[in-house]
Amino acid sequence: MEQVTRLYLVRHGETQWNRSLRYQGHRDIPLSEEGYSQAQKIARRLSREKLEGAYASDLSRALETAKVIAGFHGLKVKAVPQLKETNFGLWEGLTYSEIDEQFHEVMKGWRSNPRDTKIPGGESLGEVADRCRAGLEQVVKENKGKSVLVVAHGGIIRIAVATVLGMDLNDYWKIKQDNVSLNIIEYYEKDRAILCLLNDTAHLGPECL
Description:
Number of domains: 1
Low-confidence stretches: none
Shape: globular
Distance between the termini: 40 Å
Structural class: alpha/beta
Strand order of the largest sheet: 3-2-4-1-5-6
Number of helices: 7
Oligomer: single chain
CATH topology: Rossmann fold
Number of strands: 6
Order of helices and strands: EHHEHEHHHEHEE
Strand content: 15-25%
Largest sheet: 6 strands, mixed
CATH architecture: 3-Layer(aba) Sandwich
Mean pLDDT: 96
């Protein structure tokens, strides 16, 4: 019988830069007060699950979200640097309109072919995907047959979902990821994976307050 490894993939809680629509990337922007409240809500939801491990990007917004959730399970969070958000280089701290004005030609390439377009001072999506997949493969390898929490970033989770669905990476923007959204992927031993849940934020509804 095949072992099934279930990853509970959660996007981090809100930051002030999320609210002001600024590109964060590798900038270590902490959770806002609202972001911490969001983390508590998904933590209460996941308190009913049997989680046997906890991992997160090493950026504080992901680590802090993971620690809130892991606290309900008595778990320590292991940082995985490969699960950092895309390095947006010179774009970090800027809004979309500011980037489009200052880096118009590169932004055109990023919109049409992010897989191969390298951001000034940063990464291409293809480079992000390589490290993201390596990080997730390691998590799955370390937790065969278990249910595990992984808190990361919108771009990282989009890559994970796109990979499972066999999508072209250039279409990864078609996958929505809200703050503290829950995604579930089941990994099987023979290089098979199934997407079970996508961008679920039911825990943010008024009935969950």
